[in-house]
Amino acid sequence: xxxxxxxxxxxxxxxxxxxxxxxxxxxxxxxxxxxxxxxxxxxxxxxxxxxxxxxxxxxxxxxxxxxxxxxxxxxxxxxxxxxxxxxxxxxxxxxxxxxxxxxxxxxxxxxxxxxxxxxxxxxxxxxxxxxxxxxxxxxxxxxxxxxxxxxxxxxxxxxxxxxxxxxxxxxxxxxxxxxxxxxxxxxxxxxxxxx
Length: 195
Known about the structure:
Blueprint: E1 4-11, E2 15-17, E3 35-36, E4 44-45, H1 47-59, E5 60-66, H2 67-72, E6 86-90, E7 105-108, H3 111-122, E8 126-130, H4 133-140, E9 146-152, E10 160-161, E11 177-181, E12 184-190
Parallel strand pairs: 1-8, 1-9, 5-6, 5-8, 6-7
Antiparallel strand pairs: 2-10, 3-4, 9-12, 11-12
Organism: Jiangella alba
InterPro entries: DHFR-like_dom_sf, RibDG_C, Riboflavin_Biosynth_HTPR
GO biological process, one term: riboflavin biosynthetic process
């Protein structure tokens, strides 16, 4: 099995979106550089951010996201983001009416079932978990191996929290990656396991 990574861009005060689900400037770093991040050419980052982000994106086999993220992105129009092979959507509802059954999206009830499906699909590749409520639930359940944050220099004051509604303390190891790109700091922490 591949590792499970909780990931998102985040404000310095710990939010992945404002109260209205708007990311504001959290993704500006993806268009502030001169190195194309993908074939579209729309995403251009600094060389440091390219080296860090492209290597990570190449490892991802599956993304796990909640139904709320799926709904506000309109299911990425049936195409998983960043060239990822599959998306597992944690939801208590079926796929939307008219949804293409051939699209590589899997609608699963509950975090344990979602993780089992994601690991089956990913094989030895990374299972990426979108930060927020679902990511926080998976972290609290001990199902996350690593936390990655792209910290952007903005303060939201309130909004959607990176770790969702997690109320229990979670220990992480010291960051093993700290890289400064343009308008972003890339951090990576391993989740500390109980001894």
